[in-house]
Design brief:
single chain; about 325 residues; alpha+beta; Double-stranded beta-helix; eight-stranded mixed sheet
Length: about 325
Amino acid sequence: MTGINTLSTIEVVPSGDALGAEVRGIDFSHPVPGEVRDRLVQVWGDHLVLLFRGLELNDDQLLATAELFGGQQAAKSRDFFLQAGVKPGENDRVATRPGITIISNVDSQGKAGVASEADRSLSLKWHSDNSYVEVPPTGSLLHAHVVPVNGGGETSFNNQYLAYENLSEELKAAIEGKHCVHDDHRNTSAKLRPTKKPPKTRHDITGPSHPLVRIHPVTGKRALYLGRHYEWPSSYIVELNDQDSEALLALLWDAASHDALTWTHGDWQAGDLLMWDNRCTMHARAPVDHSQARVLHRTLIKGDPVIPAWGGSPAAGE
């Protein structure tokens, strides 16, 4: 087939906002030459979130796309369900392919509705995928199979390079050298995960410690890295007491989620593929009309260890 997957046919249409671009002339169901892959990496670095439209990809092709950009990584949420005794294929969160997460509000009989254990029609808070693991994924690929008509589910992204750059010098100084523990107790709808109990103190929190600012390994730029934040005693700053940690995190979250940093993909269509960089963006989702079916497949792009913006290890007591 001609007219796709060549350097000459790639068209990039920027969103005009703080991040995001549509890329035309690419179809990941066909081979992607090395020079085209390299160009896409460059475009991805420039725009942080890429939209490809009209793609018909099976799970093998979606996983192959992840391999194209560095490999695939299974979502940690899968482990929580396996630990709770769910077998692969019994739950949309535990697909038969470890690298695939099925995001669906459709039950086993094909009826749309709120999937109680995964809350697939609820809004999702600002977050970075799987920041609660030691080596978070580089990026995410989300492919739409079925989407509602005027039924919500708009997906928003924000630019965490700009979030850091826009901080006052006072705030930059306040977070220098500090680390945040990324809680793995709750999902992005703030619901407790299977096998997890409500934490009562910071000592109950499980999850890794990451620097509040990370260095992007490709661009070399600093990005604010907050992951996700729920009510105390969820994620906290290791080097501060609870009160000071909450106060500083409130300021950082306010800065990280400013409207000026945001682009929203509001007109989802079947065949859309979104690809975003978890190292320098966060994303959120508006609620979905639970009376309409919504089915998307996601895979994660394998990550590398987080590069801190400063040397040293977090203070004791994490």
